[in-house]
Amino acid sequence: MEFIAAYTSYVERELKKISIPDLPLTLYDPIRYFLQIGGKRMRPVLTLLGAELFGLEKERAIHAALAVEIFHNFTLIHDDIMDAAPLRRGYETVHIKWNSNTAILSGDMLMIKAYQLLEQQEGNLRLLLEAFNKTSVEICEGQQMDMDYQERTAVSISDYIEMIRLKTSVLLGCALELAAIIANASEDDRKHIYNFGVYVGLAFQIQDDILDLYADPDKFGKQTGGDVIANKKTILYLLARENASDEQLKKLNALSIEQNGQLKVHETRQLFDEIGVKNKSVDMMNHYFFLAQQEMNKVSVPDKNKLLLNQISEYLLKRDV
Amino acid sequence: MEFIAAYTSYVERELKKISIPDLPLTLYDPIRYFLQIGGKRMRPVLTLLGAELFGLEKERAIHAALAVEIFHNFTLIHDDIMDAAPLRRGYETVHIKWNSNTAILSGDMLMIKAYQLLEQQEGNLRLLLEAFNKTSVEICEGQQMDMDYQERTAVSISDYIEMIRLKTSVLLGCALELAAIIANASEDDRKHIYNFGVYVGLAFQIQDDILDLYADPDKFGKQTGGDVIANKKTILYLLARENASDEQLKKLNALSIEQNGQLKVHETRQLFDEIGVKNKSVDMMNHYFFLAQQEMNKVSVPDKNKLLLNQISEYLLKRDV
């Protein structure tokens, strides 16, 4: 995303300036490690672009931007424990490199650091805190729903959408809403830009599920079909279940216990093609993208202010499906 | 503590009013459970008494009081995981009754709820948030130091005091400081009442260590010597090490591997008496209590306003040593 490289590297520079003490080493070393293994920094960039959308210099929203990014990193550290994930962005997760206790406490500390950044943000602090807290509550609820759904057989598509809305999309909405609050935007504009972020987030998450099975492995950077092998309840799987004939359903169930990974992925893809899963999921993604655009159209600022945010959302959603 | 029963039951009533949604059940059930198993509610009562100290009605500080109590409960849930504690206040801990993942996430949610309560508190929100965040950071540092010290042989008395200051005392200071902020007290008064809380907290924590070995078991409600059996590095143990002769030190080390619990407690008590540990630790407790009183003397409000807080601190520190 070259056109936003200036924003990303500004975020990186400011992240490095956050004061992380030396001691206790066992608490702060994992935090330093985790912040440095990177990530796309998509959320703080959204806050900065949101500030510019409403006519502010991006520097005016930097503390809120960092708060969102730090909060996101807190959720990753704790989610990785709960999901027993060994790797994050190709690096060992905190609970593996150290241990669970260290991951719990350094995650807690990161959450507090997020609030410490928010405390430094100019603007209506009560509104900022309200928006941030509401989203934080929802993210925890989404994580719990995600864990609950792994144990459940019957998960409807609307359950799934609600889960990813809470677990991942609301934070994109919040990243933008904070900028609107800082800029003293109208309540309507706050709502529209929040919704824009949530819809982009939903489209993006659906695309993630699609890419896992249908991406060009050379461009995607990892082997496709990981979700299929892990029997994950992705939107593809749920759409397949909902649209399968009895016979196709039997086949789908049989495939879940197939031990040969390559064969499993190949046959699942074939079955999904029969059922038309790819088109249905792409339609769904485009539907949310359309809703996002509609929300952006309603934001009452000059069109030229909307260019970058529209560009970034288009870019995000054209990753080689 | 009958003279503060009205405060405690007010806190209980208001705690019950905090909206805890039904769903996801797996997230909110543990929170309901944990809030209902009780505790002394000492911290929120301090906030309410702090408000009255500075001439405000206690109702004006209720959200800050609840924020402190909820934050405290978050730390307990996570600490219980880290310490692998099976019981809390005689009830199963969350990670035992459910599992670690549930305890991690419901703890996270409680921390966010604390910030949600703070967001509703009238007063200078930026100052409230700054004080609250600073204390939250310190509590995590204290918990990490506590875990680090379990692994280390050489822990000095000043290390230990710093650890308990961070892990437990600063929250008492913060509970009072928030009240001072709400009441727009002067910066000096804020500092004095904060220090009062911290010193009372230190005295209280030292007393806890003393009671574990020297309390009357009938009044104490549990068998004495639990810390000795678990080889915990309490202030008694550290004072013993620092004041022991070579021979006494050898005996102390030998006792750490004694398998007979009753004998171990009996002989340790005898050894501590030889070294004069009880007097030294009571002196230390009284020293911090004296410092607390000095801070209270400096708070620039009429003496009659100080009665209840002085009474409560005296009460706390006269638990049958």
TrEMBL record, chains A, B:
Cross-referenced CDD domains: Trans_IPPS_HT
GO molecular function list: metal ion binding; prenyltransferase activity
Superkingdom of source: Bacteria
Keywords: Isoprene biosynthesis, Magnesium, Metal-binding, Transferase
InterPro entries: Isoprenoid_synthase_dom_sf, Polyprenyl_synt, Polyprenyl_synt_CS
Protein's GO biological process: isoprenoid biosynthetic process
Cofactor: Mg(2+)
Pfam family, one: polyprenyl_synt
Membrane-spanning ranges: none
Family assignment from sequence similarity: Belongs to the FPP/GGPP synthase family.
Name of the protein this chain belongs to: Polyprenyl synthetase family protein
Provenance organism: Taishania pollutisoli
